[in-house]
Design goal:
Blueprint: H1 2-12, H2 16-23, H3 25-42, H4 44-47, H5 83-119, H6 121-135, H7 139-150, H8 154-181, H9 184-191, H10 196-207, H11 209-233, H12 244-254, H13 261-288
Helix pairs in contact: 2-3, 3-5, 3-13, 5-6, 5-8, 5-10, 5-11, 6-8, 7-8, 8-11, 11-12, 11-13, 12-13
Length: 303
């Protein structure tokens, strides 16, 4: 009995990062890519060779549409702006939108899913019919309509992207809450006088925290992709705000044949970040919930 207890303690002491680097090296590399993206966003003013002045990147008519060179590693756009500096400042925009949307959408999902399952009855019926009706409408159509109402901007985009993702993700939180609320210790908490608020914050949320973390990790890639898509369609950040999707829809699409680097470089950046976010979310899912682990089973040879 003592040996089993020591083994359990030793297994519990294995940190999440240790398991990630040991069992999911690709997900660990992708996590480092995401951390690098956050680092670039924080120190964009230091890393960018051309600094923004009053929130605007300087332009130069004499240097417009220049190809990659030592002076401009990624070339320049139609306004003569350094594309390398533009991409660095655009990283800050993507990180702010991705993190804020991930946190806000997860908060909406937890509030709707947990309270809907815990209250139940007519409240749960009304909320779930509203969620069903909301999911029948294409999310891109909803976001375009909301962006048209609220206007362009980072704050508006965070709100518009978070609401559909939060409402859609509440179904998964609700189903997991139903599975937890029927456990024995929840009934024991009721017998000891614990109200629903106590049960939610002390028992329910801590037990569904792995699912919440998996939902947060999985939504990062979707947020970046949705943000780039809205900017490509013209419903995104302000005109002077550097953004990868805005580069694709402005100079990238207009000068695709004359200056292909204006579309290729932002497209590659979006592709790598979405791939890194997806692989990192798969690693988080496999570690936090081994029952959902994908891939072929491993067999040990018997000697």
């Amino acid at each position: 009995m003592q040996i089993n207890t020591e083994e359990k303690k030793r297994k519990n002491n294995n940190s999440f990062l240790r398991q990630l680097f040991k069992t999911k090296p690709l997900s660990a590399v992708c996590m480092m890519m995401l951390l690098l993206m956050i680092f670039i966003a924080i120190f964009a003013d230091v890393l960018a060779p051309v600094k923004m002045v009053n929130g605007i990147l300087p332009t130069s008519v004499l240097e417009k549409l220049q190809g990659p060179s030592w002076k401009h590693p990624f070339g320049t756009d139609s306004l003569g702006r350094d594309l390398f500096s533009y991409m660095i400042y655009g990283t800050r925009t993507s990180v702010v939108i991705a993190l804020c949307c991930t946190v806000l959408s997860t908060l909406i999902s937890v509030l709707i899913g947990v309270f809907s399952a815990m209250i139940g009855g007519w409240f749960d019926l009304i909320i779930q019919r509203f969620v069903d009706a909301w999911q029948c409408i294409p999310s891109l159509l909803i976001t375009m309509i909301l962006m048209q109402l609220f206007g362009n901007g980072i704050l508006q985009m965070v709100i518009v992207l978070s609401i559909p993702m939060g409402i859609g993700g509440s179904r998964m939180i609700r189903s997991q809450t139903f599975a937890v609320k029927d456990l024995d210790y929840i009934h024991m908490s009721k017998m000891l006088g614990g109200n629903k608020i106590w049960q939610i914050f002390v028992h329910i949320i801590p037990n569904i925290m792995p699912l919440i973390l998996m939902s947060m990790a999985g939504s990062i890639g979707g947020v970046i992709m949705s943000e780039a898509s809205l900017n490509f369609l013209g419903y995104g950040v302000s005109v002077n705000t550097p953004d990868w999707g805005a580069m694709l829809t402005s100079s990238g699409r207009s000068y695709m044949y004359l200056a292909p680097w204006l579309a290729i470089i932002p497209g590659i950046a979006i592709m790598f970040i979405v791939f890194a976010a997806s692989m990192f979310s798969d690693g988080v899912r496999d570690i936090l919930d081994p029952r959902l682990r994908g891939g072929a089973p491993k067999y040990r040879s018997k000697k």
